[in-house]
Amino acid sequence: MTTSRWTYTGNTPAAAVICALLAAVVYSNTFTASFQFDDHLYVIDYCRTHALSSFFPPHGTRYLTYLTFALNYLAGGLNPAGYHIVNLFIHIINGVLVYLLAMSLIRSPRLAEKGLPAFHIALLAALLFIAHPVQTEAVTYITQRFASLATLFYLLALTAYLRYRAGGQSFKAKASFYIVALLSAYAAQVTKEISFTLPFVMLCVEFAFFKGPVLPRLIRLAPFMLAMAVIPWILFGPGTGTAVGGEVMDLQLKDLRDISRHDYLVTQFRVIVTYLRLLVLPVGQNIEYDYPMFQSLLVPEVLASFIFICVLFFGAVYLFFRFLRGGGAYLALISAGTLWFFITISVESSIVPIKDLIFEHRLYLPGAGAAIAASAAVFFIAERFSRAANAGRILAAACVILVLPLSVSAYARNGVWKNEVTLFEDAVSKSPAKERVRYNLAWAYHRTGELDKAVEQYNESLRLDPEKNKTHYNLGLIYRDRGEKEKAERHFIEALRIKPDPAGHYNLAMLYHSGGELDKAISHYEKAIMARPDYEDAHYNLAAALMEKGDLEKAALHFSAVIRLNPASADALYNLGRVYAKEGDRRRAALAFSEALRLKPGMAEARAELAKVGGGL
Fold first, then answer.
1. Domain-terminating residue out of 396, 416, 436
2. pTM of the model
3. 307 domain residue, yes or no
4. Between helices 300-324 and 329-345, what is the axis angle to 10°?
5. 161 with 202: CB under 8 angstroms?
6. What are the pLDDT digits (tens) for 188-227?
7. Contact 127, 19 (CB under 8 A)
8. What is residue 236's three-state secondary structure?
9. Which residues pair with residue 60 across a beta bridge?
10. Residue 190 backbone phi and psi in degrees, to 5
11. Which CA distances in Å does 514 have to 485, 511, 528, 548?
């Protein structure tokens, strides 16, 4: 091949516009999609309980992602559309960065004179990355901004470094690119732990695609290599437990303690093959794969997966060395993209155990390398079949044969993310024997008021895991509201047997209270308060039960406790006044009724009771 065959050098603004338009079309049906799954924990609950001031000074794991959630919340509250817009914007930027990364690699010293169609390969790689349906989980699932934002900084750091290493620039321009690369590398480390491999990837790219004395190159990379200490320091350094993202950190450390590294690694050989299959043939996508944990490499499917991975990995290494010995330039890109996949997937698919064995969003960063390898392979194959191949025609054909079907599939997959019911109905159809899927679908039905369907799925959840206290508890709530006291009581008692919980005692007490079983109700209200002394509702209803029973002294104590916890509780003041009135203490009764009226002037019953005690004076 000669350089004259590929004359179009490309137009980055045009490529960016094409990427943005494709992403906007593919994700146009996501803006009304609801919060899903872990969004309730990592977005909704976190934003409600952490003021923006808690983010300063900067500290904690995944800090930058949490900060963006907080800014989203500040700008638009809990309207999902704002979060989806930001996620889509990040995805578009990442698509453009994949384009720039591929362009920079092709223009590097080892490839610059090989005559590759840089623009066409880079644009196809970007379009494949944007359109691939496996990326939907990292874009449409709001929480997985963790993955997409970390990928943004990862790609930006590497792309800026490649621009810094390019020739023909002023000192000021080179210094600017170096600073951007360095800042992005450290930003990536405090966005998600997948960024740990970035310095190593930069080292590999430097020595694979550039030339020159070794020592100066190592000196340039030294500040980036130091970034590898950031994540271990955040996770294991002093004073990190109460930092931003402390909940995530606790779960990560728990997985490290509770899950066998050996078993996780063995299982990941099989998982990685599933990931590769999804990249090649993205069918049967699922938010919750029903995946077993393997304990031995000698299990046939695990051993076969291990052999396949080794062949692919060492095959990629062989292709690069073949390129160095005079092989085609396409081999370098195919090799680099494949090795990128294995290096970037290694943080979540190696010896660092994670409770959830497989998730599609973990393919987001590895998918960038896979897209570059796939694009190079398309042009390589097209050239082998036709020596007169035209880059524009190859790109157009690839868009029709690959990008268009992937785009349609991604759009359809995004439709499944419409709400929790559609998402988990899809998951149940694909993982019917996984308990968490059944529970999440039941909870989705429960929240939308489809109680018969909720009961059916909760019962399936119990069939798969009879010891799940949350399932018993939620069934108890449904049966209580339906007036089926015996069923509600049985499930509340089971939930408490499995895991004693203040809310469980409280709801069982409410059940007994409504049935007139005051002694049982009082006992469980007291247990709820013993476990959680600031349980305002438990104090209030315990006081009401004691008042019904005639124990006015204790009733007054618990109404007073409610007022201490919530001085604006007009209802507690009103009922405290009633207790004082029954005890004959007209003065204190009048004071309580008057305070209740001050807080709630339209409270007619308090005004009537105040009149009865004659003002108490």
1. 416
2. 0.90
3. yes
4. 140
5. yes
6. 999 999 999 999 999 999 999 998 899 999 999 999 999 9
7. yes
8. helix
9. 244
10. -105, 25
11. 10, 5, 17, 12
Cα–Cα distances (Å) from 87 to 14, 69, 90, in that order, read 22, 11, 5
338 within 8 A of 367, measured Cβ to Cβ:
no
Count CB neighbours of 206 within 10 A.
Answer: 20
Distance (Å, rounded) from C-alpha 314 to C-alpha 339? 9
Q: What is the largest CA-CA distance in the chain?
A: 106
Query: What CATH number did the domain enclosing 593 receive?
Result: 1.25.40.10
Q: Is the peptide bond before 109 cis (omega within 30 degrees of 0)?
A: no
Helix (H, G, I), strand (E, B) or coil at 244: strand
Q: Where are the alpha helices (DSSP H) in 46-143?
A: 46-49, 63-76, 80-106, 118-131, 136-139
Is residue 595 included in any domain, yes or no?
yes
3-state secondary structure of 60: strand
Residue 616, φ and ψ in degrees, nearest 5: 75, 5
What is the Cα gyration radius of the chain? 31
Quote the pLDDT of residue 388.
63
Torsion of CA 298, 299, 301, 307, to 10 degrees: -10
Cis previous bond, 57, omega within 30: yes
CA distance 106 to 333: 8
CB count in 10 Å sphere of residue 300:
7
**Which residue, of 416, 433, 455, is where some domain finishes?**
416
Spatial contact of 71 and 156, defined as CB atoms under 8 Å apart: no
Domain ranges, residue 371: 11-416
Q: Are 354 and 267 contacting, i.e. CB atoms less than 8 angstroms apart?
A: no
Q: Two tokens at 36? A: 């899903």
Tokens 């409504």: give the residue: 514
Contact 370, 279 (CB under 8 A): yes
Output the pLDDT for position 3. Answer: 40
**Separation of alpha carbons 517 and 525, rounded Å:** 12
Q: How many domains does the chain have?
A: 2
181, 221 contact by CB (below 8 A) = no
**Opening angle at CA 467, ends 464 and 472, nearest 5:** 95
Within-domain flag for 444: no
Which residues does residue 244 pair with via DSSP β-bridges, in sequence order? 60
On the question of pLDDT at 563 being above 60, the answer is: yes
Question: CA-to-CA distance for 21 and 272, rounded, in angstroms?
Answer: 31
Give φ, ψ of 212 to 5 degrees: 130, 175
Question: Model confidence at 242, in pLDDT bands (50, 70, 90)?
Answer: low
pLDDT of 78 reads 94
- Is residue 521 situated within a structural domain? no
Q: What is the DSSP secondary-structure string of 517-579?
A: -HHHHHHHHHHHHHH-TT-HHHHHHHHHHHHHHT-HHHHHHHHHHHHHH-TT-HHHHHHHHHH
